[in-house]
Design a protein that fits this description.
By secondary structure, the protein is an all-alpha fold. The protein has nine helices and no strands. This is Biopolymer transport protein ExbB.
Length: 257
């Protein structure tokens, strides 16, 4: 009796050890490559998560460098514009900035709007919109355009963060469903027959979470950075409006002519 119990325990331990060797990612990939047809859904889930992860990493890198460049050059561009005594020199400096620099583009739109309004004095344009309203409209459009450029990639990060766990869960549910079918067909419900397929299926959920978590964290981080940048856009736009509408910033004495 004792010998039979010992043999049963040894067999159970052997089955458990065998089951553990079937719960890894390596074993799952081996099974998927050996019989791709049986793991068609798993392949679709794995490829989808890989694409999502690649897109997420791409936009995280792009937005990181974009925000670093913007924050590094924003104060320099703004201060140089206001410190330049000659308006033409200030505008020329803004024209020399890279195309990706947003503050210079906002200033140039305001300057072009003011110049366009001045050139058409006496026309219907001037009669329908005064200088302040014309510059204000140009600034609103410029701020909206540059704000939308800052948001590039955030929709993808939000989509990956919200859908990747469900994609992984789909792989898990389908894997467990397949495991139950195999168990019912073979009539074996031992630990080595159950743990391997179920463990492999749960790997899909883990992959979905590993894909979603960085995307969610990055999305929240970039939204916070963009909110600070939007405030700078608004402050700079208000100062530009005052300057091009009245000839001086708020708090400054207008220059004598």
């Amino acid at each position: 009796m004792l010998q039979e119990t010992t043999q049963a325990a040894a067999a159970t331990g052997g089955n458990a050890a065998s089951a553990l060797t079937q719960m890894g990612v390596d074993h799952l990939l081996t099974e998927m490559m050996s019989d791709p047809g049986a793991y068609a859904v798993s392949w679709v889930v794995l490829i989808t998560l890989t694409i999502m992860s690649a897109m997420s990493v791409y936009w995280i890198v792009i937005n990181t460098f974009k925000n670093m460049s913007l924050r590094r050059g924003a104060d320099r561009v703004i201060s140089t514009f206001w410190e330049t005594t000659n308006a033409q020199d200030a505008i020329r400096y803004m024209e020399e900035q890279p195309r990706s620099e947003p503050f210079s583009k906002i200033a140039l739109d305001a300057a072009q709007a003011a110049a366009h309004h001045q050139r058409h004095e006496g026309s219907r344009l001037v009669e329908s919109l005064n200088r302040s309203e014309f510059v204000d409209r140009a600034l609103r459009q410029a701020v909206t355009r540059e704000s939308m450029r800052l948001e590039s990639g955030l929709t993808i990060l939000a989509t990956v963060g919200s859908t990747a766990p469900f994609v992984g869960l789909l792989g898990t549910v389908w894997g467990i469903y397949g495991a139950l079918i195999r168990i019912g067909a073979t009539g074996q419900a031992s630990i080595d027959a159950v743990a391997g397929p179920v463990g492999e299926a749960l790997i899909m959920t883990a992959l979905g979470l590993f894909t979603a978590i960085p995307a969610v964290l990055a999305y929240n981080f970039f939204v916070r950075l963009n909110r600070v940048t939007y405030n700078k856009f608004d402050t700079f736009a208000h100062d530009l409006h005052d300057f091009f509408a009245t000839g001086a910033r708020v708090g400054e004495m207008p220059s004598k002519r």
